[in-house]
Automatic annotation (TrEMBL):
InterPro entries referenced in this protein's UniProt entry, alphabetically: WYL_dom (IPR026881)
Record-given protein name: Putative transcriptional regulator
Domain WYL: 150-227
Top-level taxon of the source organism: Bacteria
Amino acid sequence: MERDSVRKGGSRSEIIIGILELLDENTDREHGVTAAWLADQLGITVKTIRGHLYALREMRPFGRKVDRIERGDLKDAESPDPRPGWYIEPVFDTAQMRLLADGAALSRSDGEYIQDLVAKIYAFAGRSDQLGIRGPLMTPKHYNREFLNNIERLNDAIAHERSIRFHYCTYDVSGELVPRLGEDGRPREYAADPYDLRYKNEKYYLICHLQPYDNLAYLHVERIRDLMVDGNDHTLDRSFDSFTDESGAPIDLTAFMDERPYPSPGPAIPVRLRVEGGLEPVFDWFPDAQATQVGDSVYEVTVKATPWSTIWWALQYTNSGVRITVLEPESIRAELRRAGHILLERYE
């Protein structure tokens, strides 16, 4: 906003916008500004500024608190130059800022784009003077240049219930992404009903109904290319609500993903385990696990998971300080025995 318009006798709304802009640009929880400074910047009386500041304190514009920082509030300040005065609460608090910035840094996206995004997150948290992420964020070597555009278009398709078509990629010998081929030797086109985007195990997954199959599918978003979104709303072949769990109840997507530490097909089933040494590997991966202590650092545990995700999870702890034994079902025990024989033959 041109602040000269305020100096020339701007309207009440222009004055309020001017105050909010100055607070947003110059304050945070440890740095305030005086009513006199605001009055000087906007060319109006201190009395007028104070009246608007008290009104803004009651209004909480955009859900953000406007208030005064008193000198006593700064006795434990972390900043080397704390300053009392009026301030506006940042969009994000420090914890939210760090979570968002670290999540962005882990997304394996374009390095320059993520660096800019992290800088904006820090600015919204009133921490634009902090570096945030040490060193440059590099773009992954085999990065899909369509990734960011696909995220935007998939989000739109999910919001408007629009069906999608795309090519799905694998890697060639040089590590470059290339489309999977159909029986005719040409890139195979896939059709799907998109439902949600979820981040897990350092991968962005699209949760969808991949036609013509009956189950929910999980696709790596970075492997999607040539994405086409139907131009009309509500064009899904099948809605998410049409999927139910084994009891016929609607699927809780968060619980659904928790039952799949590694996204894998098939229904989740109860799995009984004997865990010796500690429960970190259990609750790090299965937040709803049921554990009973049966000895000194020995536990009987029940989790609900798909068979393949349980197998992959158990195998990764083979050489750890925690000993995990699947007690039932027998089908998972048999598959783990088979994996052991394969490894023994391969590395004997």
